[in-house]
Specification:
By secondary structure, this protein is mostly helical. The protein has three domains: 443 residues, Cytochrome c oxidase-like, subunit I domain (Cytochrome C Oxidase, Chain A, Up-down Bundle); 28 residues, no CATH class; 168 residues, Cytochrome c-like domain (Cytochrome Bc1 Complex, Chain D, domain 2). The strands form two sheets. It has a two-stranded antiparallel sheet. Strands 2-3 form a two-stranded antiparallel ribbon.
Length: 731
């Protein structure tokens, strides 16, 4: 290492920008969440506007919470801590500023598209292809800036927080690109390259690992840096952090299929996901223990320091969420919990408790340092902590109760062997009081977030007229010599030889070598993710027996295809599933269980993850066409206690028949055997629309609907689950 000492300046301007964005988008994301909670008890809150329905706003809430609030928090943490850990200013101020402004533009683009029904419908990946490309470009710029900073660092040793940041950047890039491969139809519409079972598998490989590598690993990096700083204590165990890192990176990537237990996914895949999910208990709790024990000798400060309060509760929620996640992955538990609000409670305990409180703790620690002044009000931070904590508890307890109620009522049978609650609406009515409690808990949490934002703004207003340059100095880093600690083993016996080798492994001297070669560390982490993913994906795509075909299953007609796209645009998948599991309670309620071969033309899949309303996979032919028209116009006219919002505009909005041909052409390019429909899609759609409209009139319904969106949606709904009922069906 060179002895020449270099002076340099840190870039805290970009940290200030990301910190402010974090606080602002936190208010927006939680307010939208509160509005959605209110919609479930007062559907009229939507005011009859298509842009304000639950189905359209729910993806906006999840994207705002994950990518706007948590995303900006991640970037603030990385830009602040990386510079100090690496003893180097970020590679490029221009790239840092491009990253900030482009990321905010992406968030705004999401806010301008999702409420207007422009969506891919994939959970946590709803944004359409132009925005997906923009995300990839911004992420590459961020990666270049980050790894370029590592290359010019003045600190040889790579601290644990940097390991987690590297794993995040590499894995998120892989997840985003693979999951969002699609064929564009127009600037606002695309079809996934994957269909049915494969699409579901890829989505939850992405979805679960978006939680793992966007909401977990970067926040663990945040924990490993900011918690020791706030507590003024070193990390409890360096070796435990190594075990924590590698076991998480290896195990997490396998866990996604546990979201698809008892579905049309091959059983081997979901079982594999369950096994690796259960193994995640160990590293997750190892990380929690490492975090909490870092506070040894500093617990007395927790009572008086709001920053440490936020961190302690945040890490505790991490432990709770990572205990519950493996529990929910166990098939017998998942059979009860899946599609219920239990999953929603689990997600929010992690998002609000772990991600939210770790973010607030970081912001309260950062604010005085990046604004170079005192925190405006410690008392207000204390109030924020207690209101937020109580709000989370009220929220999740109510939703845990709702989830348990749903699961038990759906599966209940009476003494005669019939469903005890055959009408789905009975469950909805029973849990409405719990939904009101959730609103109260959400209101408390939002109040805390607003108080935090006010505290941030007032602290900023106290800033000096001109910020002082944040300077540091360190020797320039010389070329790496490749030094490797020698393993000296006395040659006494095989036993002592083995013992010495184990000691070498336990002391993690091998990892100290890797830490001096960050790009080697990054390559190994990336290879770990790629190899584990390939082991799951290759059989799913190449072994035909995993998705057996059904002769009677045919492609959607052109009109049904555009009706399906309307279903997707309206966000119906946010409340309804299309997957009847082979569980007696479900087959009694909905009909024959769903087969893998029924979904080979579904791009994207629509299995859903929640049932606020009943499953729709066997709804085709269950009701007359007119029933669907009335139900969409005013759900309470057919189901008086329904909490579904009205979709009256579907009877007034014209169907764009000219857009049907490009949609069919795109599907044909993806391998859907459309035959003559490729040449006459629009004409076929017009003919079928007249037929459906004629049936509605004959049933006593309104005239002149043949050119409206409702006709296409009805055609699609009436098709669902009917193919296997046709004569001659077989595998």
């Amino acid at each position: 290492m060179s002895s020449e000492v270099e002076k340099f300046e840190y870039d805290d301007a970009v940290v200030r920008k990301f910190a402010f964005a974090t606080a602002f988008w936190g208010v927006v994301a939680t307010l939208v969440g509160l509005l959605l909670a209110l919609m479930l008890v007062l559907p009229e809150v939507s005011l009859g506007l298509p842009e304000l329905t639950f189905g359209r706003l729910r993806p906006l809430h999840t994207n705002a919470a994950i990518f706007a609030f948590a995303g900006n928090a991640i970037f603030a943490a990385i830009y602040y801590s990386s510079q100090r850990l690496l003893k180097a200013r970020m590679l490029s101020d221009a790239l840092s500023n491009f990253h900030f402004w482009a990321w905010q533009a992406i968030i705004v683009a999401a806010a301008l598209t999702l409420p207007f029904g422009i969506t891919q419908s994939k959970e946590y990946a709803e944004l359409e292809w132009p925005i997906d490309i923009a995300i990839a470009v911004v992420w590459v710029a961020f990666a270049v800036n980050f790894f370029g900073t590592i290359a010019r660092r003045r600190e040889r040793h790579i601290y644990v927080a940097i390991w987690f940041y590297m794993a995040t950047i590499i894995t998120v890039a892989i997840l985003h690109i693979v999951n969002n491969l699609a064929l564009p139809v127009s600037p606002t519409k695309s079809y996934s390259l994957y269909a049915g079972v494969q699409d579901a598998f890829i989505q939850w490989w992405y979805g679960h690992n978006a939680v793992a590598f966007f909401l977990t690993t970067p926040f663990l990096g945040l924990m490993y840096y900011f918690l020791p700083k706030a507590a003024n204590r070193p990390v409890y165990s360096y070796r435990l952090s190594i075990l924590h890192f590698w076991s998480l990176v290896f195990l997490y990537i396998w866990a996604g299929p546990h979201h698809l237990h008892y579905t049309a996914l091959p059983e081997w895949a979901s079982t594999l996901g369950m096994l690796f999910s259960v193994m995640l208990w160990m590293p997750s709790w190892g990380g929690m223990i490492n975090g909490l024990l870092t506070l040894r000798g500093a617990w007395h400060r927790v009572a008086e320091d709001p920053v440490l309060k936020f961190f302690v509760v945040g890490i505790t929620f991490y432990g709770m969420a990572t205990f519950e996640g493996p529990l929910l992955s166990i098939k017998s538990v998942n059979a009860l919990s899946h599609y219920t609000d239990w999953t929603i409670a689990h997600v929010h305990s992690g998002a609000l408790g772990w991600n939210g409180f770790m973010t607030f703790g970081m912001l309260y620690w950062l604010a005085p340092r990046i604004f170079q002044t005192k925190l405006w009000s410690r008392k207000l931070a204390e109030v924020h902590f207690w209101i937020g904590t109580f709000g989370i508890l009220v929220y999740i307890v109510a939703i845990y109760a709702a989830g348990a109620t749903q699961g038990l009522m759906w599966r209940a049978f009476d003494a005669t062997g019939r469903l005890a609650y055959p009408d789905f609406i009975e469950t909805v009515v029973r849990i409405l009081p719990m939904y009101w409690v959730r609103v109260a808990g959400g209101l408390l949490f939002v109040t805390g977030v607003v108080l935090g934002f006010i505290n941030m703004v007032m602290t900023w207003r106290q800033r000096p007229a001109k910020y002082e340059a944040v300077m540091d100095e360190a020797p320039a880093l010389g070329p790496y010599t490749g030094f490797t600690p020698k393993l000296v083993i006395p040659r006494h016996s095989q036993m002592t030889d083995t013992g010495h080798r184990l000691a070498y492994l336990v002391k993690a001297q091998w990892h100290r070598v890797w830490e001096r070669q960050p790009f080697k560390l990054a390559v190994w982490a990336g290879m770990d993710v790629v190899v584990a993913s390939a082991f799951e994906m290759i059989p799913t795509f190449l072994i035909r027996s995993n998705v057996p075909t059904i002769a009677s299953v045919k492609p959607y007609t052109p009109l049904e295809l555009v009706g399906r796209d309307i279903y997707v645009a309206e966000g119906c998948y946010n409340c309804h599933s299309q997957m009847v599991r082979p569980i007696r309670a479900e087959t009694e309620r909905y009909g024959e269980y769903s087969k893998p071969g029924e979904f080979i033309y579904d791009r994207p899949f629509q299995w859903g993850s929640r049932r606020i309303g009943p499953d729709l996979h066997r709804v085709g032919g269950k009701y007359p066409d007119l029933w669907h028209v009335r139900h969409m116009e005013n759900p309470r006219s057919t189901t008086p206690q329904s909490i579904m919002p009205p979709y009256a505009w579907l009877q007034h909005d014209d169907l764009d028949f000219s857009s049907i041909q490009p949609r069919v052409d795109a599907m044909a390019m993806l391998g859907v055997p459309y035959g003559q429909a490729v040449l006459h899609a629009e004409a076929m759609a017009r003919e079928q629309s007249r037929e459906v409209a004629g049936r509605i009139v004959s049933q006593g319904g309104p005239r002149h609907l043949e050119h409206k969106k409702i006709i296409a949606l009805v055609a699609y709904l009436q098709r669902l689950g009917t193919d296997i009922k046709k004569q001659g069906s077989g595998s």
